[in-house]
Protein 1
Amino acid sequence: MIQRFYPLAPATIVWLSLFSAAEARCPALGGNIQNGDDQFFTSNLSGRLAYLRGGPDSKTYDVLDDCNEIRVNGPTRLNFIINNVFVPKGADGKASFAAVQVAKLQIIKQSDLNVTLERTDGWIRDGVEQLGFGPISIKNMNARRFFDTHLADKFDDGLLKYKNWWWHAAPLGGTSSSSDAPDKWNWNAAFFADQSDRIVLSNRLYSFSFNDTRNTGIPFYVKVDRTDLVYIRYFAPVWAEEPQLYVIEIR
């Protein structure tokens, strides 16, 4: 039986990573459809992920469970959105961020296993505004090294810089930095070791401002091409302490 949302245990993550393309274990999307912004952007669904079946401008939200199946016809973009409804208190500032990690299990062995980084505009570090960039590939930085960097006793993210811009930073108007708890970026080691030559990892930072009247969510997309599984993992200072994980079978 598939567990209900919030977060999967490490053993479950490893088990799900062993699916073959011929074994359908996840139910198809469609069991929880919210039509219109007023139905999806509610406090009850805060922090939840939805698939935009009709494209990035769709107002039909397929709310995901922890494991779902999506059918595609060839290479395509899958559009998603995170419900970022949040009522801030004074200590929360005026903005926050979502840290999103996307791991794709490809059908064939990959020649490039370097992680990619990307970030929206609107960040600051050491008093210097940091521009958005990416996705960019970090040379000689596979998933394991990315995790080890964030687990080191002395955290040093100099290898994650792009030109003169730091990747880790705080959103403008926010009170938390993406590097405040570096160990949160670490994923289950056994999961990545099992199919290490077929997994590509993307790490993303999306800032957003608090809005009392109208939320637009945190939209992003995932390109799939000869992809077996997509894992979407994310966390944010304003939501649950544990990262949330979704597994998507591509058919």
Note: The longest helix spans residues 143-151.
Protein 2
Amino acid sequence: MITKNLLLGIFITLTLIFASLTLVEYEQVNTLSSQVHSSQSKTSSTGLSFPRNESEISQFCKFGSLVGGVVQQQTQNASGQTITTIFRPVLVMQTSSTAYACVTYQSLYTGPAAGFQGALPYTFNFGLSVCHRIGQAGLECALSHALSGSAFPSQVTLRPSMSNFTVVYNVTAPAGSTGFYDSAGDTTWGYPLAVGYQNSQLNASDFHIVLSGHPGGEAQPVRMTSVSIIGMSWTYVEFQCLPDPPPCISGN
């Protein structure tokens, strides 16, 4: 009888241990699923009041979903070539809708040249472009007016040592604007944008963007530090590059 009770006690203890392990694994899977889902979730803009003055921006942007950064990894194929895999965020919105992007900027403005006083007015605008390939190493882009958008505030006066600030961009996709847009944003930031599609439908070949060998651009007095979105979703799209040259450009 004592032996039977001992064995029964051991069996119950092991059952509890296995049950706790299963619960831990279940929570880990749920956590991972939640993280993946969060990158694809859509924060509705219905019922939100667009900020009318700069003091309302902070409250408005609390409803935003933060867009992740670029993730890059390198592997070698059977031929010994280094393959660079780049996971880039792509924005997704539907036609006949309006979405918003809350972009936080850091001012890099250190003041005018010695002997001068003053501040620097800096303008913000929403821009949209569509690109196509030229040969193996070229890319030509043109502005698109398929969507409409603007920035609020549209101008900020930069001063030395000023704190970070946020600009809200709105973008409207009318009926008939279904398509892939290679860059949606402003001078210092931009994301590929798909209109009228679901996240699961996107492929690297849908976009024409330079993935490596970026040319140096004109220095800007501001730097984007984060982007959160309202009324649209985002997801990672996988792009792959063989060793340069030529510069890696996605799309056909």
Note: The CA atoms of residues 52 and 234 lie 26 Å apart.
Protein 3
Amino acid sequence: MRFSLLALIGCCSLVLACSSVNIQKDASIAEDENDNYSDEISLDDLVPEENKKKDEPSETTFFDGLEDQYKDELVPEQWSWCPSEDDFVGEDWEWTLLVANSALYCVFCDESGVFRPDSLEKEWARKAQLKIVSGQYPVPSINGEYSFRLPVCLKSHEPNQQPLLAEPGWIHAEHVTNQGKTTVALEFQQALYTSNGEKWNLLGKIYGPLAPEQKTIRIDGNYTSPNTGDGMTIIWKLCPGDCGPERDSLAFASCHFQGVSGYKHLVSFQGGKIDLYLRIGELNIVAGNQPALFNHAVGELDHEGFDQLDYWKLVFTGGPQHYFVRHFLVLFDRPIGESCGIKVENLDIWDELPPARVAIVRCDLGEIEERQVIQESWEDLP
């Protein structure tokens, strides 16, 4: 049953537990249920072909040039299967969604489940990006429900099985104007299908204040706080079938979290060290989740350095309770010896057990060996 966004916004006094999403679709990269990985898998097999890029030293810091790392993701050649602005379905409404070319959103981690030995592998498999096709799209200013289809496209680890735009769905408007101030509330849903006929549904919610005489709502991929009342908050979710339990869906958020404070974990271990940079957004009461983005890892393994900024090669999960315990997987641009990456698990900001754990992994994500942790710490970044 569709719910009222405004009713939920008005219930902020309730104490809400943080919940998130966990797709039930089998996203395991193992060849069978026993995770018997093939030794023939290479590092390049772990990244969609169109996402591969040349190995170049990065001078990008945690806070500088974050938008630049996504510019290659936004060129038309990288999204050749996307629909066009002409695939929009709607009416000649008064208000307009102005979608910038930078409107790219990334799946953030599942924070609802208990951490298990294969949690990072499953987190890697559920990674996806959502692009809203740039253009100008009318949206209803008058409350009601209407036929609607917004041109969107998705990228995942399985390029031939990405859900594609299908028949129109609906958009529901439930705006409120009080003393000359308008609060926008738009909710929409539309179907997508894979090439083998598997159905998915994209759900979108847009809510926030509209200035007097304002008729344009901008969608640009930036992070917006759901709690300050400044600007529009935008929620995207993708779920299989007709959208059953909440845990079946994938939640998207900004791919760069500009302006959001950060956290830096520093870990030294036998044969190396690693710094892990993480951004955690605010709890979104309407969406019922708290987005997080692991966007940078830099370090050294066996005297060889690495510096990773690629979304597809940075994996994070935090489990329940607001990411108090954090787990990371970093894949290298090229192997270091036999290793294609590093797992860093159990980084607890309260220093509780179990202790931190580091392991180097093969290109199929199977562990090669565990490395003894020498020291770990963390710090806030403004």
Note: The first helix runs from residue 5 to 9.
Protein 4
Amino acid sequence: MVVQCGLCAGAQLRSRWLKRIDHQNTKLHGAREKEVKVAFEYELNPQTDNWMQDFFWDSWADEVFMSQNISASGGRETIKINRLVQEDASDVRPYISAMTLTEAGHGDVISIHRITNKLWIWVNWTHYDTDGTRHRNLVRSPWKSGTYTWNSKPPNIQIMPSFYPDTAVIQAKLDPLGKYIAYRISGNGEDEYELRSLTDVELNIDNVIHHLGPMPLTRAKATQLGWTDRWVFQGYASTIDKLWRFTGTGNGNNTDPGAVTEYHWSTGAETRHNVAGADSGEPEGLMVARFGTDRIKVLMGFVRHPVRQFMVHSLTYNLNLSELPQAN
């Protein structure tokens, strides 16, 4: 695992992004692999069957926000972010409203943050000039249901510093306490991750605490980097100590089976958790939530088809333990 610790210079990282240099590749060799216990949490009912991309649980209100991808004209894509309330007696969370971001991109990563009881949505928003030139901006917006375009944006939306050109895909996930933020930088068949302080980002301070990657996003890149699987990206999540990456195609496909891999930010040590049997569907979306003072849950989304259902399962960590519960 390639790791950069401490205060890394953003300019150096951008230079490496623009012109890749030779370095040691991340490999599976020596990684621990575990079968783990997976628990069902609830089903999501957004009232539309567009493909699920990601989700985020708001612990303050016990609501779930779920992104779906909708095909638009000319190969462009629209993001629908659904708001779903507490589950009913059948463990189904019903839909109450949505924000639709027209031609804003794939919607494969969203994050939620409450600031003084105001709910903010983080997403990478794609938009186009009149000549078709594409731009990508990392934004956060107060939640307000409705349909929007880049030229008619939600009120009080903020374009957040990405520290990269707006041609790069920069996505963000906040930690459960809202103190740190993990950036995902993807392109050229691979992705990399940076841990930053949310305060630094809000102050436009380019300060990377930890860095992990590159990791493959295609089979060809996986072969090049020496990986045998985990190139189909399906989500990620982070705390101050660890990064979790969700991969795999599911549905009985053994070429790249469903897996959650945890990486220590500071050392790069990795453990792969096989979750291929968690559900019969395709992995879609990941987040980490804290429960009380002694537990966190890694929440995983799955899409069942051909009869489309959106399911959430979980892995539970005891905070004083370094390993997940083992399967019976």
Note: The radius of gyration is 19 Å.
